[in-house]
Amino acid sequence: MDISKYPAEPFRIKSVETVKMISKEEREKVIKEAGYNTFLIDSEDVYIDLLTDSGTNAMSDKQWAGMMQGDEAYAGSKNFKHLEETVREVFGFPYLVPTHQGRGAENLLSKIAIKPGQYVPGNMYFTTTRYHQEANGGIFVDIIRDEAHDAGLDIPFKGDIDLNKLEKLIEEKGAENIAYVCLAVTVNLAGGQPVSMANMKAVRELTKKHGIKVFYDATRCVENAYFIKEQEEGYKDKSIQEIVKEMFSYSDGATMSGKKDGIVNIGGFLALRDEDLFLEAKELVVVFEGMPSYGGMTGRDMEALAIGLKESMQFEYIQHRILQVRYLGEKLKEAGVPIIEPVGGHAVFLDARRFCPHLDQEEFPAQALAANLYVESGVRSMERGIVSAGRDINTGENHKPKLETVRLTIPRRVYTYRHMDLVADAVINLYKHKEDIKGLRFVYEPKQLRFFTARFEEI
Predict the structure, then answer these.
(1) Is 45 left (phi over 0), alpha (psi -120 to 50) or beta?
(2) Is 273 a catalytic residue?
(3) Which of 107, 226, 248, 303 makes a 20 to 30 Å CA pair with 423?
(4) Membrane-spanning residues where (predicted)?
């Protein structure tokens, strides 16, 4: 591997958190007590935590300083005004409704934009997004390009919407029966795959012709912008800020979890262009989140998010962020470990189907792989496969996604390249004795979003 391709961290470390490595025997006991669910492991028993990049970021000195200026007024906080101004500047949306995190925004959008029985096409489902859509009577339809479901196919912009699928859905169901198009940038469960600017433009043109709105999941939009700058013709010399602004010019609004590309530990928002939808969202946010000027966030957290959004536009920051993830992916590829290709923006996804070919999908190979990786190394990861996909709300049968993966999710500004080396070594060592990984079965299965709290036992 050519290490010169990977820039050093564009920051200095000012504060540290001590972590410890417990013994393998202790980890075997921990995972069994956790029901082989990595979500149920105590943080203090984890050595390198790659469960998620959501809210696990390291904030900057400017963000911490901003938190000391929190205006915790119940209404009319100055920090809300700063966040509102920042969202207008960065994304171009005139209206902002803050929420406690991204799923709060998903709930609001689903309630104001979906009529029961309407279809919500999107470029691959996400767990909480689909839950809110279905809970409000929507019917999710996957219209991502077919190539996104092929883990080993290394092509750019696998997150693109298939325009033929979208047009066919409109023709079959009628434009009036399409609530809106949900466009995620990037696509998490496809492996953090980006969407091209050309595809965003084309989706906007098609939906405009039929009077259909388009809402983005903006959670990792800065990562998406980097891929556009790196790989799409005509954007090499544009700034990240310019690319982000253009991306969202093709949408009617967006939900965002600030806990990812906002580089904070909590917070999110719903941003809109339509004033009528905004007024509806303002009424509902009082019921579910809080006053429209804080929406479940403290003043200090709104300030940190406003500053974090600006910091995420810095090229040096996002370049290091993307390439650190790519570094881990390339190390695993060189060792022959099967992963989703190309490496996406926020995580490396192990392809559990090829990693554990001896396990049937109903034996939850990705869940088993994540559990065994923890025992092997103290590294915590997350299942993104049949367990996360849940059950069909009508038939009760398991959804069986083509992608059965384990997500190694890299928090922002937290770990170094040496940490990535340790993770790579652990995965490679586990791959050498992958046949020892046993399948799992449910001991406890909750009805909703089961991957968070389900418990398993080895078969």
Answers:
(1) alpha
(2) no
(3) 226
(4) none
Tokens of 354: 């090829």
* DSSP code at position 298: -
Q: For the beta carbon of residue 397, count every other beta carbon within 10 angstroms.
A: 8
Tokens of 288: 């579910």
- Which residues in the chain land under pLDDT 50? none
- From 318, 321, 341, 334, select the one nearest 409 (Cα to Cα): 321
Residue 217, pLDDT score: 97
**Two tokens, residue 87:** 């969202």
Q: What is the CA radius of gyration of the chain?
A: 21
Of the listed 95, 126, 131, 294, which one is catalytic? 126
- Which residue in the block uniquely carries the two structure tokens 């906002």? 262
Which residues, other chains included, contact 23 with Cβ-Cβ below 8 Å and sequence gap of 6+?
Answer: none
Is 451 catalytic? The answer is yes
- Model pLDDT, residue 251: 98
Integer Cα distance of 165 and 424 in angstroms: 38
For the stretch 238-250, pLDDT in tens is 999 999 999 999 9
DSSP string, 311-361: HTT-HHHHHHHHHHHHHHHHHHHHTT--B-SS--SSEEEEEHHHH-TTS-G
Is residue 126 annotated as part of the catalytic site, yes or no?
yes
Q: Is the pTM of this model over 0.90?
A: yes
Bin 92: left if φ > 0, else alpha if -120 < ψ < 50, else beta.
left
The whole-number pLDDT of residue 153 equals 97
pLDDT (0 to 100) of residue 4:
81
Active site (annotated) includes residue 374:
no
Strand partners, 456: 442
**Structural domains in the chain, sorted by start:** 3-53+314-458 (3.90.1150.10), 61-311 (3.40.640.10)
Residue 384: active-site member: yes
| DSSP string for 349-396 | EEEHHHH-TTS-GGG-HHHHHHHHHHHHHSEE-EEESHHHH-B-TTT-
Instruction: Compute the distance between CA of residue 251 and CA of residue 269 in angstroms, rounded to an integer.
Output: 15
Q: What confidence score (pLDDT) does residue 3 get? A: 75
Choosing from 103, 130, 259, 260, the catalytic residue is: 260
Chain-centre distance for alpha carbon 144:
16
